[in-house]
Predict the structure.
Amino acid sequence: MAPNEFVPSKISGYRILPISLPPLPSYPVTATHYLYLRPHEPKLPTPTAGRSLFLVNVPFDSTELHIKNLLSIQIGLPQGRVEEVQFEGGSRRRSGNVEGAAAQATKDKKGKKRRRGREDGDIEEIEGTALPTTWDRELRTNGLTAVVVFVDRPSMEAAHKAVMRASRSRELPVWGEGLEDKIPALGSARYFNHHKLQYPNSNQILESVNTYMTEYAAREAAQARARARQRQVPDEEGFITVTRGGRTDPARQEAAQQLAEKQKEKQKGLEDFYRFQTRERKKAKAAELLKKFEEDKEKVRRMKERRGTFRPE
């Protein structure tokens, strides 16, 4: 099917790529879908922005396999050039850094109120801790965007040029061609699989729960170690942070006291930084001398009463 002659090849900096949507049993008509592409230029630069393409108006049934197939084989390029496809609103699993996450969580909680809801360091975001999904593939809303990350910048530029050539061709790439046996089917088969996935194997659930609890225990232990370090190290003013976890033993308390004294030694010489501090120090010194004089005077009076007459040598 040839593209519409009235459709431009480029608009507002986006390259237009017409793709052919194959007919479906419920709608046996071939349709044309327009995909918009340009080099990715985010407002906040990222390490992968220079080797990425920004896609607009991705089809509702888009998968990473669809995009990789379209931007490689279907436009005349070899496979393996696409590293990752990031869909708008898609979740990205990551492996957890327990010590770093615990330290960051302890740092964020200091001096702040507890916030409800999910945070960046949630355990649910770590791969292997979530419960089994009940859908075999994810569907999207029409018009969403995606970022396609290539292995290097030359691969991204080659794909962009190939899209330019494909947009001028009279033979449109067919969406999902050659992937019929590689992705789950839609229609009634999708809901039949959904019904089966609602009752997962008990071993899968047990594995997810064990992974979650192992990660939770490791994170709790890391947070306890971080709180213990806070109880032993004084802050800038020489105070020891009061945290949960019980009292420390006398040896640790003595070490913490020594650190506090060292901190006070570093601050010597800064007592008279302000003028009022000098006045207060002089007043305190005069009061101390007067108190000592009165004590000595009272001591002499008592000695006179005991010995009668006191004669200094």
Remarks:
- The first strand starts at residue 10 and ends at 11.
- The beta strands are 10-11, 14-21, 31-39, 52-58, 82-87, 144-150.
